[in-house]
Design goal:
The chain is an all-beta fold. The chain has no helices and 20 strands. A hairpin with a 3-residue loop joins strand 16 and strand 17.
């Protein structure tokens, strides 16, 4: 989620006239885990075309995070369980991004900038993207590069201040198959180096009698992470049925051993020119990281994490979106969704210690085109 602010760092050559085509909008996103975290995020965004060749887009958002988060995993009772320790979380993240695009005939070059700040994490990123239209604009090729420089800190450890650097590469193609169908496929690769440990995660392992004292172990992850993600989207409109089929598939893998598949299907049905409804269902499954374990073995491994986000699990997420379009270019959208993650939903068998996560979310947005 990102949103828009006109930023002074944007240097756009003067053109005759103001923005000729654009959009402004506001939205509020809410997320609530059962018994744990709550997130509220107000967002504003905008974009505008200047002359025939330039386009500027920007956004800003604030994440307001409250609630409790599992910090300790312990097998003291014989079965590893997550335990909430310490004070409740009350954090805020401020983020903004901006993008400037310039068209050159059938090609477009864009430059973007993103900054995100919170109490224990600071991120600065930039990106460059090139698009080229061919085949009478029925085919679009895209290539991009991005880089981020982050600082990881901790409210529990004032001395922690570690860096993380990530480079991202993207290639993709969008193909119009017919007047009613289109497909898009992108491949994204990232290479990261630096501090990946979660300073708030701890593993407390008890051993059988006579096998030594219990171990209190901090989260220790590799200092490198290479990822590869392939995303394909298909859209098919059915005029007689008054709706559009939307189907997405995403494959993800990294050198930590995580393998993930995401399938999402949706049907957007229109009732005249004003109203639309979009029910959707998303399924997600992943394999565990090589170094994930709810307990620590002896001798202690070089890398270890009991963070269940690195476990093997699966999830289902149904959602429903309502869209209303009004004269003058105003659009109102409201989405409600539910998330259910559990080990039983994993396609390859879930981690036995994974604790079921249930959450609800909603988004309401108002956008106006001019």
């Amino acid at each position: 989620m990102h949103a828009a602010l006109a930023l002074p760092i944007l240097v756009v050559p003067p053109r005759a006239g103001a923005a000729e085509l654009g959009e402004v909008g506001v939205a509020v996103f809410g997320y609530k885990e059962r018994g744990l975290m709550k997130v509220t995020e107000p967002i504003v965004w905008g974009k505008g075309r200047i002359g025939e060749d330039w386009e500027v887009a920007a956004s800003a958002a604030v994440d307001i995070v409250t609630g409790a988060s599992p910090q300790l995993v312990s097998n003291r009772t014989g079965t590893p369980v997550q335990t909430i320790t310490g004070a409740s979380i009350d954090d805020r993240r401020n983020t903004w991004d901006a993008k400037v695009s310039r068209r050159f005939g059938e090609g477009t070059v864009s430059v973007s900038r993103t900054v995100s700040r919170e109490e224990d994490y600071i991120s600065h990123a930039f990106g460059v993207e090139a698009r080229y239209d061919l085949n009478q604009r029925n085919t679009t090729l895209v290539a991009g590069f991005g880089r981020s420089n982050d600082r990881v800190r901790s409210s529990d450890d004032p001395l922690l201040d570690q860096g993380r650097r990530t480079r991202e590469y993207l290639v993709g193609v969008t193909q119009v198959i017919s007047q009613l169908a289109a497909v898009q496929s992108t491949l994204t690769a990232t290479r990261g180096e630096g501090y990946y440990n979660d300073p708030y995660k701890i593993t407390f392992t008890f051993f059988p009698p006579g096998q030594g004292l219990p171990l209190l172990t901090a989260d220790k992850r590799p200092s490198r992470r290479d990822t590869l993600a392939w995303l394909t989207r298909y859209r098919q409109h059915f005029p007689t049925a008054g709706g559009t089929l939307q189907a997405d598939y995403r494959f993800y893998r990294d050198d930590w051993g995580v393998r993930a598949h995401t399938l999402e299907s949706a049907w957007q049905h229109s009732f005249g020119d004003r109203w639309s409804i979009r029910p959707a269902l998303r399924y997600y499954t992943q394999a565990a990281a090589d170094f994930y374990s709810p307990t620590v073995s002896r001798p202690e491994p070089a890398a270890h994490s009991s963070d269940q986000r690195l476990a093997a699990f699966g999830g289902l997420s149904p959602s429903l979106k309502l869209i209303a379009r009004f004269e003058g270019g105003t659009t109102v959208e409201a989405t409600a969704g539910y998330m259910h993650n559990s080990r039983s939903l994993s396609a390859g068998g879930g981690s036995p210690s994974f604790e079921t996560l249930r959450a609800y979310y909603g988004i309401v947005s108002i956008a106006h085109e001019f």
